[in-house]
Amino acid sequence: MRSFISIPESVDDLPLSPEAFRVYFSVVRHVVENETFPTVEQITGKCFGRQYALRETHTRRALSELIKFGLVSCDIDTENYSLIHPDKWEVSAV
After folding, report:
1. Lower Cβ count inside 10 Å, N or C end of the chain?
2. Sign of the CA dihedral running 32, 36, 42, 43
3. pLDDT tens digits for 3-31?
4. Exposure on the CB side of residue 45, measured as CA atoms within 13 A
5. Domain range summary for the chain, segments of one domain joined by +
6. For residue 65, what are the contacts with CB-CB under 8 A and spacing of at least 6?
7. Cα separation of 11 and 25, whole Å?
């Protein structure tokens, strides 16, 4: 059975790079299906292929971009990422 993921249309209005948009969609899908945030390695494999040495940089840049726009947060000490619910987004970011 196919599932459908809903992403707020305001995400499309942000000046996100294609990589950040791809990572955001993948993260939302993973959280909906598994109720946990995926690891950087899981995101990299899903979005950019299995060549981790080169591709993990793309994932980290995309996550940094999502943090900048307030769509994702990160605990610096543990490097645990979290999705921020659209109701909690900064008005200036969207």
Report:
1. N
2. positive
3. 777 888 889 889 999 999 999 998 998 88
4. 6
5. 16-88
6. 16, 17, 19, 20
7. 10
Query: What is the C-alpha to C-alpha distance for residues 47 and 19, in angstroms, rounded to an integer?
Result: 8
C-alpha pair distances (Å), 17 with each of 13, 32, 36, 58, 69: 12, 23, 24, 11, 12
Q: What is the pLDDT of residue 1?
A: 53
Indicate the pTM of the whole model.
Answer: 0.82
CA distances from 19 to 1, 3, 15, 30 (A): 27, 22, 11, 16
Q: Residue 56 pLDDT more than 80?
A: yes
CATH topology (fold) of 16-88: Arc Repressor Mutant, subunit A (1.10.10)
Q: In the numeric block, which tokens belong to residue 72? A: 């994702």
